[in-house]
Design a protein that fits this description.
The complex is a heterodimer.
Chain A: H1 4-58, E1 76-82, H2 92-109, E2 113-119, H3 121-130, E3 134-138, H4 147-162, E4 168-178, E5 181-190, E6 207-209, H5 212-286
Chain B: E1 5-11, E2 15-28, E3 31-35, E4 42-55, E5 62-73, E6 77-82, E7 85-87, H1 93-109, H2 113-138
Parallel strand pairs in B: 1-6
Antiparallel strand pairs in B: 1-2, 2-3, 2-4, 4-5, 5-6, 5-7
Helix pairs in contact in B: 1-2
The chains are: A alpha/beta, B alpha+beta.
Chain lengths: 287, 139
C-alpha cells in the first residue's frame, strides 16, 4: 500500500487536473452556443444554393460546365479533409480520419492518385505522417469561420479539377446532429451529384444573362465555396460540443478518482492511528 | 391554385423572405427584371439594388435591398441568393449617407488597384442603397 504522503500528492494533482478540465468544459459550452448559432445561420443559404445547383445539373444547356459533367474514367481523386486545429475533443478527429484512411487505402490499392487538401492542424499532421500528397492547407481557422481564409485553398482544388489533375472532388467533415452526437460524413462535391431536388422534368434550359459561361462559373464556384464554408461551420459546432462532452466526462472521472483515493487515504490514516494507539497501549502494559 | 410564384430571398446570414408572390421586380445584371409566375427558367447575377415583391392576395409591397448576388427563376420558384440583404424597413438614409461619405474619402486615399476596386464596389452598393431608400420614401 502506498504511503499517506504519496496518496495526498496524487489527490492534489487529480484535483488540479479537474480544475483545468472543468474550466475547459465551461469555455467550450459558451463557444458551442455561438458556433451552433453561426452554423444554423448558414443553413438556409446552403440549402437554397444546393437546390439551384441541382437544377443546373438537370438543365440541358448548350454549354456544359466542367463541374456538371461526370467523367468516364475516375482514376484520380481530390479530397478535402476538415478537422479541428486543437485536440481534447473526444473521438471527433479520430472518426473523421479513420473514415478518410479507410477510403485512402482503398484508392491506393486500386492505384488511384490522391491529392489532399487539409483544413485544420489535426488532419494536416495526420496526412503528413501518412505521406499523402498535400496540395493545399489552411490551419488556425479560429473560432469563427471566415470565407476569405478558405477561398485560396478551395481555389487550388477547383483549379485542380478544371485542369484535369483529378476526376472527382470529395469532402470529409463532421456533421453536427446534436450536442451529444456528431458523425463523420463524406460527400461528393464535384462533379455535381444527380439529386433532383425539385428540378423540372423534360428537356429545358435556362435563359442566361449575360451569358452561360460567366453565370455558371460564378454560381457553381459560389456553390462549392458555400458547401465548404457550411462544412467548416458544422465542424466547428461539432468540435465545441464534442470538447464540452469530453471535458465533462474527464471532470466526472476525476471526481470518481478523487473519491476513491480519499477513501484509501482515510483508511491508511486510520490504520496508522490504530497502530500507534495499540503501540502506546502495549507499551503502557509492558511498564 | 391562384397564379402565384414562390419567392425565397436568402443571404449568407439568414433567410430574409419566403412566401407566395404575384409579381417581383429585381435588379438584374443587364437591366431591371419584372417576373410574373410561369416565367421561363432564368439564371443571372444581380446588381446592388432593391427587390420589390408584390405578395399574393394584395397587401403591401415588400422592399428588400440586396448588395448583389445570384437570381434563379423556375416557373414556380424564384430564388434570390443575396450577398447581403436588408429589409426595406431597416434601411436608414442618414446611416447610408454617412457610409457613402466615408467610402468616398477612402477612394480619394486609396492607392493600389485592389483597394480602389474594393472601395468602388462599396460605393456602388451604397449608392444603390440610397436609391432604394428614396424609392421607399416616395411611396
Amino acid at each position: 500500500m502506498p504511503g499517506t504522503k504519496e496518496i495526498r500528492n496524487k489527490i492534489k494533482s487529480v484535483q488540479n487536473t479537474r480544475k483545468i478540465t472543468k474550466a475547459m468544459e465551461m469555455v467550450a459550452a459558451s463557444k458551442m452556443r455561438k458556433a451552433q448559432e453561426r452554423m444554423r445561420a448558414t443553413r438556409p443559404y446552403g440549402e437554397k444554393i444546393r437546390n439551384v445547383a441541382a437544377h443546373i445539373s438537370h438543365a440541358n444547356p448548350e454549354y456544359r460546365h466542367p463541374f456538371v459533367v461526370a467523367r468516364d474514367s475516375v482514376k484520380r481523386v481530390g479530397i478535402i479533409v476538415i478537422t479541428t486545429d486543437k485536440g481534447l475533443c473526444g473521438g471527433l478527429n479520430t472518426n473523421v480520419l479513420r473514415m478518410t484512411l479507410g477510403q485512402y487505402k482503398e484508392w491506393q490499392t486500386q492505384g488511384e492518385e490522391i491529392e489532399v487538401c487539409c483544413f485544420g492542424n489535426k488532419g494536416l499532421g495526420f496526412m503528413q505522417r501518412l505521406g499523402a500528397n498535400i496540395v493545399s492547407q489552411v490551419v488556425q481557422l479560429g473560432d469563427r469561420p471566415q470565407l476569405d481564409k478558405l477561398i485560396g485553398a478551395v481555389k487550388v482544388m477547383l483549379d485542380g479539377y478544371i485542369e484535369d489533375r483529378f476526376d472527382r472532388l470529395l469532402l470529409v467533415y463532421t456533421r453536427f446532429i446534436n450536442t451529444m452526437k456528431q458523425e463523420p460524413v463524406m460527400e461528393q462535391l464535384l462533379p455535381l451529384s444527380g439529386e433532383r431536388l425539385g428540378a423540372p422534368e423534360g428537356n429545358w434550359d435556362y435563359l442566361y444573362e449575360p451569358e452561360a459561361k460567366a453565370v455558371l462559373d460564378q454560381v457553381l464556384t459560389r456553390y462549392v465555396e458555400t458547401i465548404i464554408f457550411q462544412a467548416v461551420a458544422e465542424n466547428m459546432a461539432s468540435e465545441q460540443s464534442a470538447r464540452m462532452v469530453a471535458m465533462k466526462a474527464a471532470s466526472d472521472n476525476a471526481g470518481t478518482l478523487i473519491d476513491e483515493l480519499t477513501l484509501v487515504y482515510n483508511k491508511n490514516r486510520q490504520a496508522a492511528i490504530t497502530k500507534e494507539l495499540s503501540e502506546i497501549v502495549g507499551g503502557a502494559a509492558a511498564v | 391554385m391562384a397564379n402565384t410564384i414562390h419567392v425565397d430571398v436568402v443571404s449568407a446570414e439568414e433567410s430574409i423572405f419566403s412566401g407566395e408572390a404575384e409579381f417581383v421586380v429585381l435588379p438584374g445584371e443587364v437591366g431591371e427584371l419584372g417576373i410574373y409566375p410561369q416565367h421561363t427558367p432564368l439564371i443571372t447575377r444581380i446588381r446592388p439594388g432593391a427587390v420589390r415583391i408584390t405578395p399574393a392576395g394584395g397587401g403591401e409591397e415588400h422592399l428588400i435591398f440586396v448588395a448583389g448576388g445570384i437570381l434563379e427563376v423556375q416557373p414556380k420558384v424564384i430564388t434570390v441568393l443575396a450577398d447581403t440583404a436588408i429589409r426595406g424597413a431597416d434601411l436608414d438614409e442618414a446611416k447610408a449617407n454617412e457610409a457613402l461619405k466615408k467610402a468616398e474619402d477612402a477612394r480619394a486615399k486609396a492607392q493600389d488597384k485592389q483597394e480602389i476596386a474594393a472601395v468602388e464596389s462599396e460605393l456602388a452598393m451604397l449608392a444603390a442603397q440610397l436609391a432604394a431608400i428614396r424609392k421607399l420614401r416616395k411611396r
